[in-house]
Amino acid sequence: MHVLLVYAHPEPQSLNGALKDFTVKRLEAAGHTVQVSDLYAMQWKATLDADDTLERKDGEPFHPERDSKHAFENGLQTPDIAREQDKLRWADAVILQFPMWWFSMPAILKGWVERVYAYGFGYGVGEHSDTRWGNRYGEGTLAGKRAMLIVTAGGWESHYSPRGINGPIDDLLFPIQHGILYYPGFDVLPPYVVYRTGRTDETRFSTICDALGHRLDDLWKTLPIPFHPQNAGAYDIPECTLRADITPGEVGFAAHVAPPALRVAAKG
Amino acid sequence: MHVLLVYAHPEPQSLNGALKDFTVKRLEAAGHTVQVSDLYAMQWKATLDADDTLERKDGEPFHPERDSKHAFENGLQTPDIAREQDKLRWADAVILQFPMWWFSMPAILKGWVERVYAYGFGYGVGEHSDTRWGNRYGEGTLAGKRAMLIVTAGGWESHYSPRGINGPIDDLLFPIQHGILYYPGFDVLPPYVVYRTGRTDETRFSTICDALGHRLDDLWKTLPIPFHPQNAGAYDIPECTLRADITPGEVGFAAHVAPPALRVAAKG
């Protein structure tokens, strides 16, 4: 299989650097082909702006959506953007690996998403009608591919627990797992998270690699997070709110994950 | 009063550009002094890396926390970072204004947070002991100042409602409002959010400005979101989990906002 690892850490001699190397080796040893987008090493341009479109008319106001659509449709994207889109098309699975900085991904990775997810590629795909609101959340350009996060955090696991002060890790990652990965169609696997990274001696590093190794071995077996697809009946369109009979009364991020009963029903 | 507006949109001739100009005028007309950090116009460096520390030893691995601490303590930060910290110290209120891109702030603004919030300034402040876990979440360098978000979103308001497919807006903004603003001490006001920005004619723009104007007029009167302070008794330390008798059983982001009963008790 083809795996794309999008990796965002500034220092190769770091826990993240070591986990990246481990991940590549483990996947290659299992017979997979791996490409790494090492964003810091590539000096990835983090900022979405008018320079992302070749041959722009001078003086015309830059409109992020319209310019992106125009560039994508007419082969006027900068080569760095087109190259990453090609890697995504090539991949069967995509891993985003990053340290949690201020409860989200580093800016350089956020800028990768903003620039690579062009209009017509990452969003703005499919028809909007009375029954469909675009090909998104379970459908889209990247449907049929798998995605997984590898995340490191300095804080303790309890700080990210259901009543932890930082907020539960699943909720902190929802805008990425649901909003960035499920949106253009990925099947999203549960994340692999390492906490308290300041305390990583060799014994602990070996334990971390063991657990990560099993996750990588199971990349094609692990069940994805069962988010509700947008256009398959769980949502009223165009409001895009959960239908009244789907987990009635439940609100918030977790409501968009199908409970076990509904998963069985959907299979039957 | 002194207001710092940190603004992240690439095009002056946009809804965001117009709202930025409106905000500056309205605040100045009320007698406030305003500074604007127009990140795109400043060509703000979005990516945190070793170049953020002056006079680094060649060949030594870059460690984001340690290098940031060393630079902050020894006057070795790059001038762009030090300048933004000075603006934050100067400000009585800080407004972050941005378009919601992929359910979070644009990369350029995320990179402003990552670089300006140095160790010893934005985090790593105060003692860690059996009763305190640093000066954070309600205490810290920026305590006593107010902060507010002005956010634009292309999607419909219903898509961001409690059962909307994107997730509730309050939850999407929690990592910013709680994790980035409350963390170093800001009192965080409810956000001002504009939805469905693609449909903004002159009438609607005028309505939007009216509502925003009232929010700006009330910047010093509006009650902040009553997040629980970390070190005032609501959390077990060092686990940093909500004490068992605080909204028992409640989990998730909303659990960190004091319910009305507790707010009255806290005042009494």
Automatic annotation (TrEMBL), chains A, B:
The keyword Oxidoreductase applies. InterPro entries: Flavodoxin_fold, Flavoprotein-like_sf, NAD(P)H_dehydrogenase_qn. Residues 55-77 are annotated as: Disordered. Pfam families: Flavodoxin_2. Residues 1-201 form the Flavodoxin-like fold domain. Residues 55-72 have a biased composition (Basic and acidic residues). It comes from the Bacteria. Keywords: Oxidoreductase. PANTHER family: NAD P H OXIDOREDUCTASE-RELATED, NAD(P)H DEHYDROGENASE [QUINONE] 1 ISOFORM 1. Belongs to the NAD(P)H dehydrogenase (quinone) family. This is NAD(P)H-dependent oxidoreductase.
